[in-house]
Amino acid sequence: MEMVVVAPPAPGTLEDLRRRFFATPLQALLSLVSLAIMVLLAWKLLNWAIFSAVFTASGGPEACQAAAGACWSVIAARWRIILFGLYPFEEQWRSALACVTVVVMTVLSCIPAFWTGRRIGLVWAAGAALYYVLMKGGVLGLPYVGEEAWGGLALTLFIFVTTCLIGFPLAICLALLRRSGLPWISRITGIIIDSVRSLPLISILFTFAIVLPFALPQWLVGDKLYRVILGSALFFSAYQAEIVRGGMQGVSNGQEEAAMALGMNYWQRIGRILLPQAMRNALPATINQFVISFKETSLVVIVGFFEILASGNAAYGTGEWRFAYVEVYAFIAFIYFVFVFSLSRYGAFLERRMSVGER
Amino acid sequence: MISLLRNQKVRNALLQVFYVGSLAALVLAGVVIARRNLAEQGITSGFDFLYKSTGWDVSFSLLPVTANDPYWWFFLIGIINTLFLGSIGLLLATVVGTVVGLARTSSNELARLLGRTYVDIFRNIPLILQAFFWYAIITHLPTPRAAHEAWGMLLTSRGLYLPAPNVGGVAMALAILPLFAAVALPVWLGRTSRLSRPVGERLVIQLAGIAAALACAVLILIVGRLPDAPLLDFPALQGLNLKGGLRIPPEFSALAVAIAIYGGSYIAEIVRGGFKAVGKGQVEAALSLGLSPWRVFTLVKLPLALRAMLPILANQYVWLIKATTMGIAVGFTDFFMIVALTINHSGQTLEAIGILMAGFLTINLSLAAVFNRINKAIALKGNQLRG
Prior knowledge:
The complex is a heterodimer of chains A (about 350) and B (about 375).
Chain A: H1 13-21, H2 25-51, H3 60-66, H4 73-84, H5 92-109, H6 117-136, H7 152-178, H8 183-198, H9 201-215, H10 224-249, H11 253-261, H12 266-296, H13 308-317, H14 325-354
Helix pairs in contact in A: 4-7, 4-13, 5-6, 5-7, 6-7, 7-10, 7-13, 8-10, 9-10, 10-12, 11-12, 12-14, 13-14
Chain B: H1 2-6, H2 8-40, H3 71-105, H4 109-123, H5 127-139, E1 148-150, E2 153-156, E3 159-162, E4 164-165, H6 169-191, H7 199-223, E5 232-233, E6 236-238, E7 241-243, E8 246-248, H8 250-276, H9 280-288, H10 293-323, H11 327-330, H12 335-346, H13 349-378
Antiparallel strand pairs in B: 1-2, 2-3, 3-8, 4-5, 6-7
Helix pairs in contact in B: 3-4, 3-8, 3-10, 3-12, 4-8, 5-8, 6-7, 8-10, 9-10, 10-13, 12-13
């Protein structure tokens, strides 16, 4: 006997719409309210940001204040301050190039072909070195620019990159120490990780920037920027260490026992068996941690750095653009959004990619 | 000697001694150097400074304060400010997060889209930027003379003015008691199994209790109001300034709004995750038993989702409490800002940092303890492995 399966007739467009949005009175109400909110917000936003906005700086602040919409002239007039801070005007191309370096480096490390410890380490070390030479100068005919003149987006990216560069190896060390079989080592490391995690990042930055110079011998104090980066790297590594440890717990004991049975020593077991599998488990959470720590670089404004948020405050805070604060904050929020959103989308993509084998 | 070093046990012991010893030496060296450096500046270490008067003022305080008050009083004010802002922020963020999270899990595509847009936008902008933004918005509101008025509230650049009850402190405290009772009593009743009822009925009893308590509270307020004054004191313009009512300073409202919006976007994701974790079979079983969609929600989905959410929610709450330290960016005198000001003014660096760490450790550990207790209370009893 042959069974004939007849598919129900496909609903027409109108019928389809009715089923999706107006199935019950409650659904209809919900649809209408959501639609109303969306249309209203979209119209207000578009009207403010595009239709009645002023885009050119030629009219000056006066032309702006007369308009009903956004005043993007403030960005046209002050974008250099927001992006580059107090960096010398003629040298700002270097700052821009340094930002591009960081972006290229991040994109490269998102490509699976670079996911071996050596390659990714090489990319980041080379990127950071190139950034440093470009920003600081003093060699290759580039005039010297001290750290105190760095600012804007370039400084934000620098703090982010160095935080990850120092924090990541530190996190792996902390995770290994915490899972060590020697009770005192794992216990003390646990206490360190937990207490760093329970403190707010601002208090750690503040301690490293302002309090630490008292507790260090004179020759160790160094520049405030590097102290703050160390503090933020410590905070990053405390969180990342727990993520790595979680990844290690996901690797079955048999793996390490098999490696032991093959006669591998500790470093071979860690470097070739445990870490590669643990990092694979921990990848989604790691991307999430990168996203969080990128957003948290903005906190250095509190210990007095001229990163993108502070330079934004300066861009509208002085003189004739006082009224245009919403536009400046919207511009900075947009920059953060582009970086953070693309990173987190990438994280979601990775999560899907990783779960393919587990379905 | 060499053979001793080859011994695994001896090597392990030495390694541990080396690790602990070097860390202790590092900390000890830091403290010694810091004490010497501070002593050179004429700052004596110790906690005596806690009893000295500060000589500076705070911008926001729930307790009476003057510049003559001692440091320990200021630390107390800071902790209370942090907890106050934290609890208001948590409450608002939870409300926002629940609404958005429910929108994200609803069966309506438009509501889902709206929720998703909200989360994508506000989760990806740093909290401190949002705090700056709201602070700028509020401080650019019109001056008191040209204030926006709505339902007796005044929106001005000096803050939000609300109508406040003209009631003495004792009556105020008494009025809060029935509210606590209304929240605590059903929890206690639920413990005794004889009186336990299905969730739906309990909800009704609870709501009735809260309504009764509110009525009680209003009654107490009316009885306890100050003589010869109306019950509600409306803010009004007097000269160049506003008199009367309750003033919420811009620093506080900016932070509360920023935490509510940013925290809400995270909590929305937690709520969504919690509802996603409810097994499809459970919901289908409830529907096939003939329960109405509302009862499926309150009796099946919500309790199960809550269990899945709670541990993650606890972490998020700890994070949000720590986020109140952004107060220093807009000048809200939270615990951390008091510590920073103390270091600036008195130079008692090590002691102040110690107090800061102890304070946050206490807050976080007690929050974690409370949540562990709730978690244990509502966890599924026995061995139920069905998904």
